[in-house]
Amino acid sequence: MTTWTATARQELEEHLAGLRRSLAGSGADPDEVVDDMRRHVAEEASAARLPVVTEEDVRRFMSRVAPPVSWRSLRRDAVTGEGNGNRNAHGNRNGAGEMSRGTGESEGGGGAGKVGKRWRSLWSTGALWLFGVLLPLGTLVFELVTRACAAEFFNPIPTVWHGLMVALVPLANAMALGLREGAGPGWRRVVWWMNGAAIGVGLVYAVPFAPLLPMALVGVMFGLGFLPLAPLLSVVAGAVLRRRLASGGVVAGWRRENPLAAALAVLVLLGYMVPGLLTRHYARRAIHGDAAVSQTAVEWLRRWGDHELLLRESYGQNRAFWTGTWFERIPEETARELYFRVTGEPYNAVPPPASAWSRSHRVWTDDRDFGGAEWDSALGTEAVAGRVRGLSMVSSRMDAMADADAAWSYVEWTMEFRNDHERMQREARAQIQLPPGGVVSRLTLWVNGEEREAAFSGRGHVREAYQKVAVQQRRDPVLVTTSGPDRVLMQCFPVPPGGGTMKVRLGITAPLVLRGGEGNDAAMVWPRFLERNFGQSGLLRHGIWLDTPEGRVREAGDLAVVAGAGGEGRVGWRGEWTDARLGEDGRVLWLRRDGSVREQVAPDRMGEGGGWVRQRVLAAGKAGVRRVAVVVDGSVNMAAHVGAVADALQGAPDGPEIGVFVVRDGVARLPGDGREGAVTAALRGLRCEGGQDGVAGLEAAWDWAAEQPGSWVCWVHGPHPVLLGSAEPLRQRMERHRGGAAPKVWDLPVKPGPNRVLEKMDGLTGMVPVPRLGGLAEDIGHLLAVAAGRVPSWELVRDHLGAGEPAAGIPRASTHVTRLWAHGEVQRLGQARSVSAAVALAARHQLVTPYSGAVVLETLEQYKQSGLQPVDPTTVPVVPEPGAGWILLLGALLLWGRRRGSRRAAAGLGTT
Amino acid sequence: MGDFFDNWTVQVRKGLIELCVLNALAERERYGYELVKTLVDIPGLGITEGTLYPLLSRLRIQGLVETRLEESPEGPARKYYTLTEDGRAMRGQMLDYLDQLNRGAGVLRRRGGSI
Questions:
Q1: B57 interface with A at CB cutoff 8 Å
Q2: How far apart are the two ends of chain B, measured CA to CA in Å?
Q3: CA distance A9 to chain B (A)
């Protein structure tokens, strides 16, 4: 019994496959001959009494039966004895399955023919190396280094996998060209597969490059046209090599595996494109289709779409893999809106998708792929936009003081930004959420280590000055304007490149939120970022410092008393908070206050006629609210919160009628009163998805609430980073519906984030942010209880007493109370369309309001050119508040400093 | 001169190889392996297995030989080749032709004298 090894069988099959190929057109039946030959070899093995037939034995047997390359040559071999070296004095031993064996063409021939053939072979091999290996390899390296095609036409290498597939082409061709005669069958099979895959890859790339061929052919004359021709030429080279491999008997029994490999390569590359193609298709439908078509497309994109593609388009960094209508880019603004509708996340809350190449290959990549955008398209505008590369906040501290009895707090937030970009100046922009009812009352910029205070003037005026100095002259200004209720936009420029820094400080005056039966609990809320275009180190902590009278902090949480700080009768508290900690509801600090203090007066030092401002703490009467329209945002950010809304509604006390409006790809009012089980059950079952259009829900709720005078709208929502429709109809309702009968809109965000709807409601007193003091159910429950008149509601009412001295028994309060009065008065004047008066009052009291802004310029000359006057440094609030003697001393010092600075500027030593 | 002789032997062998196969089978039925071993022993014919089996296949297709399979106790099943009537007739014609050719060539050879 003879046993065959696996390699022996494989070797035999290779030879037989070569024999079968050579018999084409010979007149013999290839199947029959192959069977005969197999039988013959078995007889040989049996006759030789081999217990085990090895690969070497097969080679030995087959050396006598070398497959001739054509019938004609077979006939000649037969009579000359070629292939049988034992018998033929002239014959050459022919190895089986060698590429170098040739194609069987031009048998015989004279010496001149052999020389010519040798030269032709050399030329063709050289051309194969050039067009099959060097050109594709060079083109790949050129594109990776320059990204020329990606920048101008389409991205041929959108992922690492595409890069590897392209690299396979020169590799496969080199392997085929370098295949040696003695290579084993396993390696030959690999080469055969690789060749097929290379042809497939080349074919896929040849198609998108086809439109560039005319240009390429012209470019050939200049030596550059070969680059777009590379895919096509590599396909030709691959096909020639395939023919060589096949004719050399290399393919043996795997002939069909080569086209299979090619088909697989095509499928892999095309398969990668399918999600992108479908995403673009549905994106076009979502953008251009009617409402129903658009909605269906958005639903599809939510479930199956390539969200990363939309994100790349939002950052403007995507280049489609192919050209053509199907691969048209989505405009950035449209992509951002669509990304929000689909994912519910603002695009700039997500880092730009990583490059196709890792950081270790940075030299090959587009800079925009790392840590933000290279180009800041929003420079000088009112949009925060996405992160920019190299810009980060490197230090942050909040120095605060609070007077619980007078119900005010003042926080100075000092921030320092650094720009690590090698050459580009940067603008730091952030939207900051103020404490409820808060107002920016101070703005400072450090210029060469010296503090410069802001000028306060009309909103347009300061923005114009900022644009002129920052964007045009590229000097050092900082600007703060409002961007919605309790929101401001801070922007400073330029943060110098190469590690340059810029340091600014915002002072924020805010009322405390009073709670408790006697109004003896006061909540101090800290400011926080809602949106920013700079990064933060994970190690960054906001240094917190609070100066309060002794014994007033009820729950200090993670703040600790600093021994010896704060002065007589006062206490200093200190802590370090992460940005996430500030973003949580825990940014609230509860203080104890003397509930019996119901009235205080504060001097008006900034008013035209001086005088006093009185602040009274009043327990609001029964609200008398008839309807409460609860608008529930159905966006994905609400998924974890709808249960809390349902809980609050379920526990709502009897009183006003509650209507629940759900915004989920349209607006629907849930039938029945909001307290009913069916409504709360429907809320709990609400599937929150994507980003939703809050305006539509607010309009519907407003109209329902406005049917009954004195109604409320309570908008419970996640961030709205994109405005999906016009907010003007809503603003019109709120502006035109005069009198106390107009519904009041309570804004209740479930998490911090940008809100373009609120930005459009800037300056409207009817839109009131709800102080987020506890859990969501708790805060909504409190609001509904107040609406039902079940819990006391404390109101801080301020009025101007004129110049007369107030009664001696009334406690005196800080000028922060005066600022808060002025803040309210500015808003009242603005609502009454007395904008000039509002601006003048805001400027006098140095406040940033919907009608006024603050800007710090670098030199007095710039202020003068802009028609602005920086504030007197002695009039700005500080922490801690100094006594009168200290104010005079500080004023004298600052005055001396300013005069010295002016003399230096006049002498041409002004800072730059 | 060497090239001339080589080319001439090619032509001679080319003409004789089919006749040798038919002659071998005319003696008796033979299986492939046996037939190969018989023919490779003919000095100067220089036939190989890679040549013979395609030739046998052509002869079968042309109806000059026929085949049958028979199990073998020592190895794989053997394929036996036998001349058909057409094969025998063709062999006769070929031999007649060759004899005639030899006779003519012999006359010329005799006239040319010994080498």
A1: yes
A2: 18
A3: 15
